[in-house]
Specification:
Helix content: 25-40%
Order of helices and strands: HHEEEEHEEHHHEEEE
Number of helices: 6
Strand content: 25-35%
Radius of gyration: 20 Å
Shape: globular
Largest sheet: 10 strands, antiparallel
Length: about 220
């Protein structure tokens, strides 16, 4: 018998206290800029055992303004922005070429936390993109060398053949360049920190950037 989706949904619980801790967020004690709080939260969810905390949803829009979203990996966050990478000719790459603005969302249920980031996106210089790729695993290089991301695939056999050739190249010549591989940096103009609370009095702390004024902190109704 096929499972009933509605029954499965009703059986689930959000933030089960046996596996989730909901620490308080005191906005008055928050740092003046969001990167410091993001770094602190990231370290705390790693220590709390959150699986794959560096994965995030990336939302973009195409030339007509139609949205799309997918899960990607955070490559870094610093004064230059939150960074991720993909092929320039992929769907997200072509979206960013047409509309260089995006949004990120992190969800860390082990502590009942979300972080939302949005702002303009720029490509890093080519040498930085290649350096970022070659600092990663052999598998990451092989995947980048396989290429043709988001193109139509004729069969799984075609993927197997291309992937095997890419793995051989990555292992034999680990400095091989993947020409279309591009590091992107999202420089935020808005970052929101969401801390869940057991009685649904969730705390939402938003940082907004204004040129000439810097970061402004404000609270939002949950």
């Amino acid at each position: 018998m096929e499972p009933d989706l509605h029954d499965l949904l009703r059986s689930l619980r959000v933030w089960d206290p046996e596996v989730t801790e909901l620490p308080p967020l005191d906005p008055a004690a928050a740092p003046g800029e969001p990167l410091a709080l993001f770094t602190r939260w990231f370290a705390e969810v790693v220590a709390a055992g959150q699986t794959e905390p560096h994965t995030m949803s990336l939302a973009t829009a195409d030339a007509e303004g139609l949205p799309d979203v997918r899960v990607v990996m955070l490559h870094g966050a610093d004064a230059d922005g939150w960074s991720f990478a993909t092929h320039a000719h992929s769907r997200k790459g072509t979206h960013l070429a047409a509309r260089p603005y995006a949004a990120l969302a992190f969800y860390w249920p082990v502590l009942g936390r979300q972080v939302r980031v949005r702002g303009p996106v720029e490509q890093a210089p080519a040498h930085e993109s290649q350096a970022d790729l070659h600092a990663r695993s052999t598998g990451a290089l092989a995947a980048a060398l396989t290429g043709r991301q988001s193109e139509l695939l004729g069969s799984l056999e075609d993927l197997t053949h291309a992937s095997e050739a890419a793995w051989e190249q990555a292992q034999r010549a680990p400095d091989t360049k993947a020409g279309s591989w591009t590091l992107y940096r999202l420089r935020p103009d808005e970052v929101e920190f969401f801390q869940g609370e057991a009685r649904r009095r969730h705390v939402r702390l938003r940082y907004r950037w204004t040129d000439g004024e810097g970061w402004t902190r404000e609270l939002l109704w949950p």
